[in-house]
Design brief:
475 residues; 9 helices; 20% helix; T7SS_EccB; T7SS_EccB_R1
Length: 475
């Protein structure tokens, strides 16, 4: 009888014949199937190993064969250490940072990764660059072109004292409800005690508290406590105070009036027109100006018999005959002509934000009240104040990896200073507009913003090509 072993061998022989018939069309070939493929594959592996061994031996005997960096057109990155070099005048100069390397080359150059061995034996120059310049720059596509927002809120420290916390949001609008029209509120600088009327994006300092609060009925309005950094970012308007009246209490050309007295003409279907008596006649004033004058303690000199209950009503024809030219108004920073509508969201600890679209916007800032103070894990904390005393935003909120290229404008006309803001929440002034291209950006990337707002960001080193070659460490 057949043994188990004989049966297994018979089965294997049968399978071999079937396989040969399918692959080679012959049941009993002289050579086993796939022999050629096996031999070819094994030979290829042997040849590859020999080539790799030869290449490795050559690399050990001749290290550092990369010479493409010698063109001097690229920033050289040493692979093992991350050190940056610039090759010029047949020497390698180590750059203090990436921005310095680009400025030293004078153009937006690429970066080449080179091994340490490839740089062996090359003469070295001193370490050069701008100390404190950025070592990383935002990519052009990551620059933020949106509005900036500055928010402030009263907080309490561990000792129970009230402080103002200010957050600058780069490239995003402020939360909260925007104030409409001539809606405004009273602000109290928690650091100095000065009070302001904030309306139409301007801050009007209250220099005569009694005249302002009595004349405009502001005594019961809450004061929103804010910090200097927030107030200083708003453009300053005309002080909220009575206009000066020379010769108050003296005779006026208007019959029966003394200099400094306030008059009003009321007509059916139209708003009242207010005047103040001067020596030469009547000067038209706004409702706000007349209210401030009438509530001023100095105006009592124009009423020897005591202050009346309100302005004196006069005939329109009389007023027209004695009207002087109105005082010229120089711009939107003037006081509002009518009493502002005070916001119902105002409170001592309310969050107030201002969004700045650009210097060409109709209003310098859009004011919003009633939102939560923005917070983020990537907030950057500042020193709160510069050595020169400029108030900084307490925290800078900017998306990681992003940045901004802004033109810091003192007004709406003339060129400003272009500055680069990095993800570290630091601004770097550019020595000229040519530096924009050296850093890899285009003029269209620049956004114009008020200088008072940009100044809330801590300032870093100026990016000047002339300073990029400054020796920092001699060999």
């Amino acid at each position: 009888m057949l043994t188990r072993r004989d049966q297994v061998q018979s089965y294997q022989f049968l399978i071999q014949r079937v396989t040969s018939a399918l692959t080679m069309r012959e049941t009993d070939p002289l050579t086993p199937p796939f022999r050629r493929f096996v031999i070819t594959g094994f030979g290829s592996i042997v040849v590859a190993c020999i080539v790799m061994a030869v290449a490795g031996i050559y690399g050990l005997l001749n290290p550092g064969g990369n010479e493409s960096w010698r063109t001097g057109d690229q920033v050289i990155l040493e692979r093992e250490t991350g050190a940056l070099y610039v090759f010029r005048d047949s020497r390698l100069y180590r750059a203090a940072n990436y921005a310095s390397a680009l400025l030293l080359l004078g153009k937006n150059a690429g970066t080449i990764d080179v091994s340490r061995n490839s740089l062996l034996g090359v003469p070295r120059g001193p370490e050069v660059g701008i100390a404190g310049a950025p070592n990383g720059l935002p990519q052009p596509e990551n620059l933020l072109h949106g509005p900036w927002s500055l928010c402030s809120r009263r907080v309490t420290d561990t000792n129970g004292a009230h402080l103002a916390s200010t957050v600058l949001i780069v490239g995003d609008t402020a939360p909260g409800r925007s104030l409409a029209g001539e809606e405004g509120f009273l602000a109290d600088n928690i650091e100095t005690g000065d009070e302001y009327l904030v309306v139409n994006g301007y801050r009007h300092k209250i220099t005569d508290s009694r005249a302002a609060k009595v004349g405009l009925a502001l005594n019961q309005e809450p004061l929103v406590q804010v910090g200097s950094a927030w107030l200083d970012a708003l453009p300053a308007g005309v002080d909220l105070a009575p206009m000066p009246i020379p010769g108050r209490g003296g005779p006026s050309a208007f019959p029966g009036a003394l200099v400094g007295q306030v008059m009003v003409v009321r007509t059916v279907g139209g708003p009242p027109q207010y005047y103040v008596a001067l020596a030469e006649g009547l000067r038209p004033v706004s409702e706000v100006e007349s209210a401030l004058l009438f509530a001023s303690q100095d105006t009592a000199a124009a009423y020897p018999g005591g202050m009346p209950a309100g302005p004196r009503e006069i005939d329109p024809a009389q007023a027209a005959a004695m009207t002087l030219p109105a005082a010229p108004e120089s711009g939107p920073e003037q006081l509002p002509r009518t009493r502002p509508r005070m916001s119902g969201l105002a409170a001592p600890d309310a969050v107030v934000c201002g969004s700045f679209q650009g210097v060409q916007s109709p209003a310098p800032a859009t004011i919003a009240l009633g939102a939560a103070l923005p917070v983020s894990d990537s907030d950057l904390v500042t020193a709160r104040r510069t050595r020169a005393g400029t108030s900084l935003a307490d925290r800078i909120l900017i998306a990681p990896g992003s940045g901004a290229l802004v033109e810091s404008m003192q007004g709406t006309e003339g060129p400003g200073t272009v500055q680069l803001i990095t993800e570290q929440g630091v601004r770097y002034p550019l020595a000229s507009r040519d530096v924009v291209g050296m850093l890899g950006y285009s003029p269209s990337d620049v956004v114009s913003l008020p200088a008072a707002l940009v100044a809330r960001v801590p300032e870093g080193a100026a990016l000047d090509p002339a300073a990029a070659g400054t020796v920092l460490l001699q060999n």
